[in-house]
Amino acid sequence: MVKIGIVGCGGIAGLHMDMLAKLKDKAEVIAVADVDEKKAADAKARMGAKYSFKDHRELLKSGVDAILCCTPTFFHTDIVVDAARAGKHVFCEKPICMSIENADKMIAESKKAKVILQVGFVRRFDDEWLKYRELIQSGAIGRPVYWRHVAGGSAPPAPWFMDEKIGGGPFVDGAVHSYDFARFTFGEAKEVCANITKFRKDRTALDSGVAVITFRSGDVQMLSWSWGLPDGCGTSGLHDTMGPGGALIFGAPEGDHTEFIISSEKEKGKTGRVKSSSLMDGFLKQTDHFIDCCAAGGKTPAVTGEDGREALRIALAILQSAKTGKPVSLK
Ligand SMILES: NC(=O)c1ccc[n+]([C@@H]2O[C@H](COP(=O)([O-])OP(=O)(O)OC[C@H]3O[C@@H](n4cnc5c(N)ncnc54)[C@H](O)[C@@H]3O)[C@@H](O)[C@H]2O)c1
Questions:
Q1: Which of 78, 88, 216, 254 is most buried by its number of CB atoms within 10 A?
Q2: For 168, phi and psi rounded to 5 degrees?
Q3: Are residues 214 and 316 in the same domain?
């Protein structure tokens, strides 16, 4: 039984608690910590944990084998480094942190202590996203591809998401899932070019715009993203890809599934169905994988600190390009 501690008991921690409840045969939450003592107390009651703390350093002394770091991004570094130095395995939510220097520190301390550092890129465990990757990699529409992805709405509720130092806005926070998934599917990025602005002047992070990421493979990712729309407003969730052999279109989730269309000469509009990512199965598989790696004594996970660092490098290059108006090379 892997003994788990949760640090940060807000929004995403709630989802992880649901998953851990389903995995109770192999993992037990024994301690929780949150600077907000009420949130820690509520999480303790919900999980039947033995301890709740205000300070993560106390949690690290409570007998946990591993922690889930679910605080706002800016705080990940100190918590992950303290956990590694205490010999605890770490699942760290994405983005890994806010700077390459800090990411390097987290990776180096985890390696030194021989503990796991898994970063929360849940799409790598999700059937719908894995189907997209399988179709692209099988050459269903040829290569290289141009992948368009649109996501627009208002920001997540906690104000730190739109603080440029603590959360970084959508092109650091939400879109980091896309950079990682593109790396996973296309390989390493070569160059980025972005045009990002602030629709909402009352917040420090850039909130709306476009970014184009070119990969060494020649594949191109085009993101159009906003967390600056008025409450209740949103764009479509366009997710389509063009290749020399045709187009691949993923629709919106319908109940428990998502439909996709392969519009190629060979397939002639063939449709398929895959289990929708909205079912959150990816989160269950992600947590299960982390626990298995812990139980195996620190097996290298499928998503590492280095993956977190590389996705952050793309995010920071995109912000740099937005600020300078010039393409940024990632060589
Ligand atoms: N994988 C995903 O799809 C996904 C979705 C949402 C958020 N996230 C990531 O998860 C992290 C947390 O996001 P959230 O939405 O849960 O935020 P949140 O604001 O809802 O919760 C964060 C919690 O951390 C607590 N906290 C702050 N500083 C702390 C500290 N030093 N020690 C202990 N607790 C502390 C806060 O009191 C709060 O309860 C972020 O890195 C975010 O980007 C990932």
A1: 88
A2: 90, -5
A3: yes
pLDDT of residue 265: 87
Q: What is the pLDDT of residue 255?
A: 87
**pLDDT of the residue at 279:** 87
Would you state the pLDDT for residue 170? 98
How far does the centroid of ligand 1 lie from the alpha carbon of residue 71, in Å?
Answer: 3
What tokens does 277 get?
A: 């990512």
Ligand 1 centroid–CA 145 distance in Å is 34
Q: What is the CATH number of the domain that holds 18?
A: 3.40.50.720
Q: Are residues 153 and 118 in the same domain?
A: no
Residues with CB under 6 A from ligand 1: 7-13, 33-36, 39, 56, 70-73, 75, 93-94, 120, 122, 156, 158, 173
156 and 87 in one domain?
A: no
Task: State how far the Cα of 150 lies from the Cα of 250, in Å rounded to an integer.
Answer: 12
Give me the DSSP letters along 154-205. BPPSSGGGG-TTTT--TTTTTTHHHHHHHHHHH--EEEEEEEEE-S-TTSSS
Distance 283 CA to ligand 1 centre (A): 16
In angstroms, how far is the first alpha carbon of the chain from the final one? 43
Query: What is the distance in A from the centroid of ligand 1 to the CA of 208?
Result: 22
Let me know whether 229 and 127 are in one domain: yes
Among 19, 51, 74, 93, the mutation site with the greatest number of ligand 1 atoms within 8 A of its Cβ is 93
How many distinct structural domains can be found in the chain? 2
- Give nearest CA residue, ligand 1 atom 39: 10
- Which segments of the chain have a pLDDT < 70? none
